[in-house]
Amino acid sequence: MQLKWLRILKMKVHTSKNDLSQSDEICTLTNVMAVVKKRNEQTESRLLLESSEPVELPPAEVDESAVLVQFDKFKPFIHELLEELREGTMAEIVPVMNDGSTFAIHGETKTFWVKIWHKPDSEMRQIERVQIFSCVPSTLGLKITF
What we know:
With 146 residues, the chain is α+β, with helices and mostly antiparallel strands.
């Protein structure tokens, strides 16, 4: 996506100048790189929750628009996840993901696999982004007897 944007920008520079020298082209690419770098710094202002152990999440402010879903079929269950995050909950590490930043959040009827980004200096009380990777029926408390 960024490469496409770079090509469009470069084409605009070419069409706006009849005689584009090689030094102008290098200068333009340097300016584009600065924009991309600034964009990355903005993304890094969110704090990704990472841990090798379960994390007790305090009650947090989170807006519905902050939730991203891997598949549209998860959308009807977003309110259940938001309820858990707003009340405070336990985030259990998902060991099969092996990345230290994917957590299982257990709701009343569903278990969500998520990544969570907090606002800096909010002590985990303001969530800026939640990405749902999986949403399955909850088996928490279910006992199987043979």
